[in-house]
Amino acid sequence: MSHTVPASADVASPTTARTNERGRTVKGYIALTKPRIIELLLVTTIPTMVLAADGWPSWTLLLTTLVGGALSAGSANAFNMYIDRDIDAIMHRTQNRPLVTGAVSERGALVFAWTLGVVSTAWFAWVVDSPLAALLSVLAILGYVVGYTMVLKRRTSQNIVWGGAAGCMPVLIGWAAVTQSVAWTPVLLFLIIFFWTPPHYWPLSMKFKRDYANADVPMLPVVATTHKVAAEMIAYSVAMVAVTLILVPVAHMTWVYAIIAAGSGVWFTAGCVKLYRRSERGDTKLREMRLFRDSITYLTIVFAAILVDPFLPEVLTAFGS
């Protein structure tokens, strides 16, 4: 007796299979760049450029700098995934990364990382026309790939503190693209992100500390008590808020920015204090991921205030007249 095979059971055609495989590979290369991290880096670059220009820089300069920044960060992130492919395979949080699943080959990832790095450097030097931005971009890649990934990450619990400095570089790059120089204002913006990084990342490390422990990565929440980690988070957040307020006289920010920076800083620091108190009581529900998300909200609020601040004197004058 013959049986009719339902259409839904048809085997995909060779053409469809190749198309699906190409799509998987393309998605894999995109994932190598860690797009969500790039988005966060660019969120800090645009306000910095507006502050440097004391208004909107040219759209050409803004867009070309953002493209260069995305290429540079993508290169650093791709190198990071290539180097960390062994521990990514161990950690549950990272087991779907393209080098673990095989969506991208090791050779392909390495060539991709080098290509993005070379193109981003040339882009900043000739398209953005800022050799200083190109140099800072190279330093950012080296800081993340060599400083953090290769040297610090697997050796010290302070890895994210010093290694996180690479993630602060976009503000220096953005400022250099506009002014062809570095000044105290971008250094303070650098320090805001520098002090923000530990209380931003350690809650995530708390959530996945078993993963890090299995991979033998000594993140602070792995080697120290939650109580100690929370105490250090409070210290870093206080330093961060202090720098946001020092920015007021140095960059001649308005009282509107000062209020937003102080208010959002108190809000975020209070979240760190609540985590400290929960750890002190021995609570099992620390709500660390809520604090992780709040940290992103905090940084967005502060840099949004920086973005609009150059336009406020004119607006406030118009309202007062």
What would your notes on this structure say?
77% of the residues lie in helices and 0% in strands. With 321 residues, the chain is mainly alpha-helical. The chain has 2 domains: 24-180, UbiA prenyltransferase (Tetracycline Repressor, domain 2, Orthogonal Bundle); 183-313, Four Helix Bundle (Hemerythrin (Met), subunit A) (Up-down Bundle), CATH 1.20.120.1780. It is globular, with a radius of gyration of 22 Å.
Radius of gyration: 22 Å
Give average pLDDT, whole number.
92
Number of helices: 16
- The tally of structural domains comes to 2
CATH class of the largest domain: Mainly Alpha
> End-to-end span in angstroms?
92 Å
DSSP, total strands: 0
List the helices and strands in order.
HHHHHHHHHHHHHHHH
CATH topology of the largest domain: Tetracycline Repressor, domain 2
Q: What proportion strand?
A: under 5%
Q: Major sheet: size, sense and barrel closure?
A: none
- What structural class do the secondary elements suggest? mainly alpha
State the helicity in percent bands.
over 70%
What is the second-level CATH architecture of the largest domain? Orthogonal Bundle
Shape: globular
CATH superfamily membership of the largest domain: UbiA prenyltransferase
State the low-pLDDT regions, or none. none
